[in-house]
Amino acid sequence: MPSNESKATPLLTIDGLHKWFGAFHALDDCSLSVGRGEKIVICGPSGSGKSTLIRCINRIESYDAGSIVFNDVTIDDSRSATQARKGIGMVFQQFNLFPHLSVLDNVILAPTLVKKESHQVAREQAMKLLERVRIADQKDKMPGQLSGGQQQRVAIARALAMRPQLLLFDEPTSALDPEMVGEVLDTMQDLARDGMTMIVVTHEMGFARQVADRVVFMEAGRILEIQPPKIFFDQPQSERTRAFLSKILTH
């Protein structure tokens, strides 16, 4: 088994996680700890369980065995877990913005509905976040009027509006045209420099090299390797990791 020890105080601990979809064993005994402020990149071939793993963290998917503990609270269906999950934000592959709301209203919605913030406070915070992701000048537009990269930056601002302690990214650049990928990765790098705890499912290996504290490799529902980027890319321990990198780094 690969080591999964984190030098930081764990914010998140996944222990022996299993998930089945019918007879398909999607997650097979997955364990990982994530320290506060850590940046974790998860990679692996399609169908390896990457997205399922992070969707279990905020309970978009249920899990069948094992445990997930976030900020000392077990993530399950209890009331305390529902409260704790408000500290976990997620950015999806397909943006998931509300098409009938403006950019600004998309960012304001959750703080006013879930956190019961006043419209004025939520608006002030939303404008700061839109400035942070460099898209404040688009605040009055509808999502359909924006490029894919702009929409994804709005989605990041929307996730940040809930002031999460942990931010999950599920292949945030895979639906973008190549020329738009950089602007989203730049925004994510800014968040990393600011100390945000992040778990990122991605095939962007340049981002993993530059930003990740540790890189996780998954295949067939199992975590096969967890390493700092230098070791992961230069001296991978698993034969399957080496085969994966030989393919993805030559394309």
| Overall residue-averaged pLDDT value | 91
In the sheet with the most strands, the strands line up as 6-7-8-3-9-10
Taken from the alpha-carbon principal axes, the silhouette is globular
N- to C-terminal separation? Answer: 29 Å
Strand content: 25-35%
Q: How can the largest sheet be summarized?
A: 6 strands, mixed
Q: How many β strands by DSSP?
A: 10
Query: How many helical elements?
Result: 9
Percent helix, as a range, is: 25-40%
In N-to-C order, the SSE pattern is EEEHEEHEHHHEHEHEEHH
Low-confidence stretches: 1-7
Describe the structure.
The protein has 251 residues and is of the alpha/beta class. It is built from 9 helices and 10 strands. The strands form 2 sheets. It has a 6-stranded mixed β-sheet, with helices on both faces. It has a 4-stranded antiparallel β-sheet with strand order 2-1-4-5. The radius of gyration is 18 Å and the shape is globular. It starts with 9 loop residues before the first strand and ends with a helix.
List keywords for this structure.
alpha/beta; single chain; 4-stranded antiparallel beta sheet
